[in-house]
Design a protein that fits this description.
elongated; 6-stranded parallel β-sheet; alpha/beta; 8-stranded mixed β-sheet; single chain
Length: 442
């Protein structure tokens, strides 16, 4: 029975995972090579914003079931199974940069060499199909001098949504275990049985390559679903009386389709979808396949930005010289993450039109400053952001923006006009001002 768990990489995946394991009968040692991050975590502060994480971190530190380190020696010596949760960023050509995975596996191998007991390595980072069987196993064999069987190896994808990471760790839809051999798979299954107790989620045990493919296919499918509804949204925009929200509701009532991930708008962003969809396209090329569907999914996503600019331009009778308030900068609500945020992409596009842009976000203003610098004005309150502007664009659907009504817009804006890019508002509530929404026929 495994009691001691190591986690490599204390980012959006690794830190919530560490805290969750530490809160349920495991002793956890988490490693990161960023020393500043380690110091922060030791003080009980989370380097990222994730609902409930700060409290849970404080609790597991107090109970001494979690500790943070930068030493691989400590990590391997003080754990029985280790989860690799390091980043897998994109190379300029869209392929996956496996540098951090390679580094982590090499370092683990160095200490595995000196270990005289079984040790399980679990890769959680998203990696292209066959990477576990080829690259990861090869490094482990060569660097540790041991053979599979003396150590265990699995690929175990995560399906965490940012902002809901803890919720998804405690209640996942499914667990996918890609094990190199029976013993590795059984041990990982045991860890999850201990973690979930009576509420063990549905589980699929397979080989690593299938598990790696399941991870990519899931994200590509979800991005496809969003791009599909955005294609319908483009149709609706050109049809009087059509409304993509109603169409989504109608098609979503079919159990085979389902209503989730049919919210039309600016498109998909974030740290996973853009990277994984591009990597999948590239992966297809390496196999000699031209994945045209995936290519279109990306094209539709890009086209939504142009659609939003077109609607904004129509709404205010030309963008030239206008002051625009952008509400929401994070790639979705509930996170401070702005990676591949559609809102920032929209701002970059709007800046080409001689406009002045004021921005607001409840969590990510500071992060955006390092991206957009002095090109936009940063506002701490919604009111400040709306003051004197000609157009308000709702780009990320934070719950607090729901409180905005036409009286507020009339009070603060120079010429009140609202473009709802995430379908947060009921159009009927904005009858007295200029209003447009993505996917709503004119
Ligand atoms: C996603 C997957 O959901 C998760 O399983 C995987 O582990 C990581 O990638 P995340 O990036 O946190 O999670 O965001 P998600 O909530 O899936 O949204 C992704 C993007 O799609 C966001 O930009 C969101 O605004 C957009 N989206 C989502 C839509 O535009 N419409 C929808 O209906 C759903």
């Amino acid at each position: 029975m495994v009691n001691k768990i190591g986690v490599v990489g204390l980012g959006y995946v690794g830190l919530p995972l560490s805290c969750a394991f530490a809160s349920r009968s495991f002793k956890v040692i988490g490693l990161d090579t960023d020393l500043e991050k380690i110091e922060l975590i030791k003080r009980g502060e989370t380097p990222i914003y994730e609902e409930g994480l700060q409290d849970l971190l404080k609790r597991v530190l107090k109970e001494k079931t979690f500790k943070a380190t930068s030493s691989y020696r400590e990590l391997v010596e003080e754990s029985e199974a280790c989860f690799i949760c390091v980043g897998t960023p994109s190379n300029p050509d869209g392929s996956v940069d496996l540098r951090y995975v390679r580094e982590a596996v090499e370092m683990i191998s160095e200490y595995l060499k000196r270990l005289d007991r079984y040790f399980l390595i679990v890769v959680r980072s998203t990696i292209p199909p066959s990477t576990t069987c080829n690259l990861v196993r090869k490094i482990l064999d060569e660097r540790s001098g041991k053979k599979l069987g003396e150590y265990g190896l699995c690929f175990n994808p995560e399906f965490l949504r940012e902002g809901k990471a803890l919720q998804d760790i405690f209640n996942p839809d499914r667990i996918i275990i890609g094990s190199m051999d029976e013993r590795s798979g059984e041990l990982l299954l045991e860890i999850y049985k201990k973690f979930h107790g009576d509420s063990m989620p549905p589980t699929l045990v397979t080989n690593p390559t299938n598990a790696e493919l399941i991870k990519y296919a899931s994200n590509v499918f979800l991005a496809t679903k969003v791009s599909f509804i955005n294609m319908i949204s483009q149709i609706c925009q050109r049809l009087p009386d059509a409304d993509v929200r109603i169409v989504a509701e109608g098609i979503g009532m079919d159990k085979r389709i389902g209503r989730e991930f049919l919210n039309a708008g600016l498109g998909w962003g974030g740290s996973c979808f853009p990277k994984d969809v591009k990597a999948f396209l590239r992966f297809g090329q390496e196999l000699g396949l031209h994945l045209k569907l995936v290519e279109s999914v990306i094209e539709i996503n890009e086209a939504q930005i142009a659609e939003a600019v077109r609607l904004a331009d129509n709404l205010v009778g030309g963008l030239n010289g206008k002051i625009i308030s952008i509400l929401g900068l994070a790639f979705k609500p509930g996170t401070d993450d702005v990676r591949e945020s559609r809102s920032i992409q929209l701002i970059k596009e709007l800046l080409k039109y001689n406009v002045r842009i004021k921005v607001h976000d409840p969590k990510s203003l500071e992060k955006v400053m390092s991206i957009l610098g002095d090109k936009v004005t940063y506002c701490k309150t919604i009111e400040e952001c709306l003051t004197d502007s000609d157009l308000c664009i709702l780009a990320t659907e934070w719950a607090e923006y729901k409180e905005i009504n036409q009286e507020i817009l009339k009070k603060y804006m120079r010429k009140p006009a609202l473009l709802d890019c995430r379908r947060l508002y009921e159009p009927a509530q904005f009858k007295e001002i200029k209003f447009a929404a993505m996917g709503l026929g004119y």
